[in-house]
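Structural prep section.
Before we set up the soaks we want a predicted structure of the protein with cobalt (II) ion in place, mainly to decide which crystallisation condition to try first. Input record follows.
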Amino acid sequence: MAQIKTLEDLERMAPACQLASETLEYLKQAVRAGISTLELDALAEKYIADRGAIASPKGYRGYPNSICTAVNDVVVHGIPTAKPLEEGDLITIDVTVYKNGFHGDKAATVIVPGKRNPEGERLLRVTEAAMYLGIAEARAGARLGDIGAAIQEHVEAAGFSVVRDFCGHGIGRMFHEDPQVLNYGQRNTGRKLRPGMVFTVEPMINAGTWEVRILRDGWTVITQDGSLSAQFEHTIAVTASAPRVLTLFTEHEHAMWASYQKPDRAG
Ligand code: MF3
Ligand code: CO
Ligand code: CO
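Run finished without errors. Recording the tokens verbatim:
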């Protein structure tokens, strides 16, 4: 049973979500050829600690670092490494912080400046749009399957594939709560959405096949065929009207959400 958050819970959760966003923007501007994901991890750890919060991943089920970083064919849960980023690399940074008794979770994919990566750019744009299309479905009375279907339709129409083995999740006082939010599925199936449900929408999209495998470090997930993978993530709340995107932060994100959300029904 998904936990229902009160308005007061949401007001306490908003700062955690905004700090996750602020940290992610800070890390995005630090991305350049030559920096390693381990260095980004150290920047994140300090940035979050300096603001009186905790990086949720560190120690979570034995996870060793403060953020997850997924470069090129890494899909999700990438453990930061000492390898320097290269121009044109595709990198997903996933930040989760704990503050005020609540977690906020957010991820975005960017391309390391210096060299064009046309396939990576198209994958990134399709993944981001798919996430907003999914979020737009998260209205009271709709079902979880509506979110997955909207994501899957957009991704597959573009010739890409939806990773099946990982999904979005309820979030709040705990990092991962009920329900599971699949990035594929059928409309009008799955649990009904109710105001106060808070969860992430975080599609992982591969340029090739959806199959993945896990490296021997026990965490890092890569595409089976070596193709590129991208991911975007927001933490959202279902309300009586439009979904509230708690991790909405940059101008670009506000503009994207404004263009993808469904208008409120009149009356
Ligand atoms: N932030 C990831 C998510 O979106 C989870 C990372 S779990 C960790 O759910 F242990 F790898 F940090
Ligand atoms: Co998440
Ligand atoms: Co995340």
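Observations: Residues 7-260 form a domain with the Creatine Amidinohydrolase fold (CATH 3.90.230.10).
Flagged for discussion at group meeting.
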